[in-house]
Amino acid sequence: MILKGKVAVVTGGRGGIGRAICDRFEREGATVYAADLDVSGSLGLPEGSARFLKLDVTSEDNVRAVMDQVDSEQERLDILVNAAGIEIEKTIEDTSLEEWNQSFAVNVTGTFLTSKYALPLMRKAAQGATSASIINFGSYDGLIADPGLAAYCATKGAVHALTRAMACDHGPEGIRVNAICPGYVDTPMLQSFFTGDGSGGGGQSIDQLQKAVRDVHPMRTYGTPEDIANLVNWLASDEARYASGQLWVLDGGLSAQVQQMRL
C-alpha cells in the first residue's frame, strides 16, 4: 500500500480513466476524492467508494470551494490528478470559436485552476522526505497528431508546456509535476471516436475500426484505464520522488514506429 495515509483528488474521477485511478489509489491506501460533473460520470455507473465532489473545472468559484472542502476535512493534499477532459473531432475550419474555447476551458484552464487552488494544500503535504505530486493529462496527440482533432491536439500541447513550467516553479517546494500522455485507451471517449463523424468515421463498421486501431500498434492492442492507473499510481507515490517535469508516453509503442512502415 504505497499511498497509505495520502490524500488525493482526481478530476474526471467518475470517467473511464479517472474511475480506474480512484480505484487503484484506494487499494493503495489513499483517501480519495473523485471530482466530476455528476456522480455517475461518463460511464453511467453508480457511485464508487471514493468520496464524490461535484466539480466543474472551468468554474473558478467551484474549484476554490472544492479545495476549501478538502482543506477543512483533511488539512492537506498529497496528490492531484487532472484527468478531466473533452475531445472535439473536427478540423479547425469546422470548429466553431465556442467549441475551441470550450476545449481550452476544460483541458487547459481546468488544469490551471485546479492546480492553482491545490498548491497551498500541497505545500502542507510536501515536507521532509515526502513530496506532493501533480499528475496532468496530456496525450500522445500533444506530441504528434491524429487527423480531425485540431483543438484537442492544441490543448494537449498546452498542457505539456504547462506541466514543465509548473515542475520548474514548484519543484523547490517539494511538489513534483508530471504529465501522462496516453495513446488509444478503451474509454467512452474512444468509443465516441469510433462512432463519430470525424477521424473515427469513414464508413467502416465499429468492429473494423477497432481492429484497425489495434493492428496499427506494435503490441496489436490499445490500452485499458487500468494500464494508465498503474503509471499514475507510481508517479503519485514516493517511489517516484525524483520524477518531475516529464511527459510519460503510454501508447503501446504507437508513436515509436515509422508510420509508413506499418506491417
TrEMBL record:
Transmembrane segments: none annotated. It holds the Pfam family adh_short_C2. InterPro entries: NAD(P)-bd_dom_sf, Sc_DH/Rdtase_CS, SDR_fam. Gene3D superfamilies: NAD(P)-binding Rossmann-like Domain. Belongs to the short-chain dehydrogenases/reductases (SDR) family. PANTHER family: NAD(P)-BINDING PROTEIN, SHORT-CHAIN DEHYDROGENASES/REDUCTASES FAMILY MEMBER. This is SDR family oxidoreductase. It comes from Roseovarius phycicola.
